[in-house]
Amino acid sequence: MRSWSLFAWLGNRVRANYGIARLTLLATTPVMFALAVTTREAFQDPPGGIDTPPWFVGCYLAVRCCYLGLRLYSSPQLRARDVLALTVPPVLAAGLLTGAALLPRTALPTDRIIAAQVLLWVRAGIVDYVVSQALPLPRGPSRSPRRFRRGDRGHPG
């Protein structure tokens, strides 16, 4: 989806090489690697090994939770409405991806399963990207973790 673009945006808003932002990015990197590795088998899982489609959805949710946690930490001025606007699109997208992951377990013909999976993935992408872009969020400043530690909230450096 758009996980790295979210972190790139957030990395420009907070100092990504200090404090909790650094830990979040370090924790997210192996999860993104697992997400990339499981993408190839997210539609049809070959026999043997781990059940890849649910792993893909779990990795997606883990990355989005890391982003949300860092976003909430760096933007303490967010209201409950803003938090809902940040959480609803990825939760809906995860639900659609979970549906796509569970479709091969049904008795539907293979061609219908693949078509339904593609449709669910496209809808998940639309929900995650378009809906989250359309929701109103405050565009105010985020605090940098380094500046917050120093107590110097308004001045760069």
Automatic annotation (TrEMBL):
Domain of life: Bacteria
Pfam families per record: LtrA
Protein name per the record: Low temperature requirement protein A
